Amino acid sequence: MQQGTLMRKVKSKSWKKQRYFKLQDDCMTIWYQSKRTGKTESAFCISDVEMVREGHQSEVLQSLAEEFPAECCFTIVFYGRRGNLDLIASSAEEAQCWIQGLRQLIETRSFSLICALVSCTWIRDWFQKADKNKDGRMNFKEVQRLLKMMNVDMNEDHALRLFQDADKSESGTLEGEEFVLFYKALTQREEVLSLFQDFSEDGKKLTLLELVDFLQQEQLEVEGTEELAMELINKYEPSETARARHVLSADGFLMYLCSPDGSIFNPRHQVLSQDMSQPLCHYFISSSHNTYLIEDQFRGQSSIEGYIRALKRGCRCLEVDCWDGPNGEPMVYHGHTFTSKIPFREVVSILGNSRLSWGTSSSPPPLMGMSPPSSHPRSWTPAAHIPRRLHEGDGHPLVPTSPSTTLQELKHKILLKGKKIGRLEDMLDGPGDEAPDVSDDDNRAEVEEEKQRVKVGVNPNGSALQKDKETLAQALSDCVIYCKSMSFRGFQEAHSHSHPFEISSLSEGKARKLIRDAGNEFVRHNAWQLTRIYPSGIRTDSSNYNPQEMWNVGCQIVALNFQTAGLEMDLCDGLFSQNGHCGYVLKPHFMRDEETLFNPSDPSSWDSPGPVTLTIQVISGQQLPKVANSKEGAIIDPLVRVEIHGVPADQAHQETKYIENNGFNPHWDETLQFQLHVPELALVRFVVEDYDKTSRNDFVGQFTLPFVNIKPGYRHIHLLSKDGTGIPPSSLFVHICIT
């Protein structure tokens, strides 16, 4: 047996150990062992891997950038809280072999898990889990254990009947093809088979014309349906003979429904599909708050991993807080707190990494927000770092040289948000552009922090101009072209004296007050100028506010704590899942008009086309995961809740009954209906919970998407975990009708 590939496993700058890595014969498991002792240390499954990063895309590898070339480095990122695995190959060719191989296995894994009915790998995986004594056979006791593992509480007599039907050799055990028969009987989707037979004349196959009928009548496909039907047969029919005859079997039909083509999310909107030639203020922008933090706001860890994760998640607006560091080197951390610190140069290096910052040539740029540090002149070595580092690459400047009018013109540029030297009102505003609302109890902590920041910048013996020069270096000021920070003093003042390339930052409390008092004015303001919203200073636990109410008035930069999972980040991920996941979403037309009458608190205030009715039949669920930290043998009682998040008149939720003891294939067959007055702003969130009559229900999975991205017809919804990662093959099967 081959030893495998020898690579360095890295945990820190000083901890670098050589290990042998090898993919096992099942193409699902990777083990690694010590070169020195030969002892197998650990193994992981491909199903545990979320992604593979190429180059210096982790904090550890970034610290080793001068020692090892990026071409030899890569990072394996796991689902959940498991730490990354940083590896250094002996050559670029060897690194590429592993990177491309792992990515191919991840892609294959995703498809095979979705199509579990015909996936030999998935069936073999379950067999290995249930075969406790590892004899290659499964007795009935092991079958019962398997059912518990699969979240099924099946009647013992029914389970025995399935077992005996599959035991063709009458040996009292299942092996090989017998287990495949048992598994297929167990996973039989009666609701899908019934739908298939409704359109199949012989009940065994769908001819090309029968598939066209299904696509037109149920899936509401209207253009090129015959070509689409042929494409689906060629893509999803597992039988070569059936493909040659241009027919789709029941297995192929299920594979289509479980695939991205059968998803509730319109595949046409998963690519860059919106007009990218509008002004920047016409887009919602995926934005993070204190991006460097990966824990709480007071004592949490600062890490460049926060920037890497945010960029990988599609974030386009990042926050960098710079403060004095040792030997004149600026550091990034949350000022006036006990958070850890990271060098500013490492952050700039990450933002200048094209693989991270925009990935593909069509993806728009990130923004880099920056809060000023203390006023000591030596602190402004950032002013030297930024122009030098952000003008590298292909020789073109990454920082724009003049205000641009459209997002397209800003492609591949990094915009710095900050103050500029030169205007008297800039000098009088103090060093920060965030103006906390002193009338809001939630923002008292912000007021105190702002006072501290202003005190730091005061020079009692100098003029306002001297203080300004001490606070901001000219080189940094010259980099602020588009997002020039301005304090907000009211909509009328902004309209009279501000410019489209300027930006104001508002606390969540002040923004809510403006929404209540002047909703329409807020929408009009955001039609021509950028507004950034940030969390209240009392959210020291890094909790989040609901971003929907800010999007309802057109606020573009709604900054959230990306490290905190929950409803708020589900909404953020849902909104920005469209348009190629590029982090920019074009606002509805009525929010881009400076004379609009739209007010989210009163949908009747503008000439809307009228309400839309969304009807959802929740049919069934498939292989729902167990609740984390549940007792051994516990089986969930799942229910489905559908939530509408949008303008106040559209906010609603409804839920199904719960199904006792069945997380494997629960059937609800319940219909939920909603009226949407402003569907352009609505997000639809599907949540699965484990019902508990004595305490709060436990979270199982969710999926959130914009209403405008929903595909009608029979669709699968592939669930995500609490932290936004996939949990294949867990899904819901629904029928969607929009009238």
Automatic annotation (TrEMBL):
Residues 1-107 form the PH domain. It comes from the Eukaryota. Its cofactor is Ca(2+). This is Phosphoinositide phospholipase C. Residues 592-721 form the C2 domain. It is found in: Cytoplasm; Endoplasmic reticulum; Membrane; Nucleus. The keyword NADP does not apply. It holds the Pfam family PH. Its EC number is 3.1.4.11. Residues 441-453 have a biased composition (Basic and acidic residues). PROSITE patterns: C2 (PS50004), EF_HAND_1 (PS00018), EF_HAND_2 (PS50222), PH_DOMAIN (PS50003), PIPLC_X_DOMAIN (PS50007), PIPLC_Y_DOMAIN (PS50008).
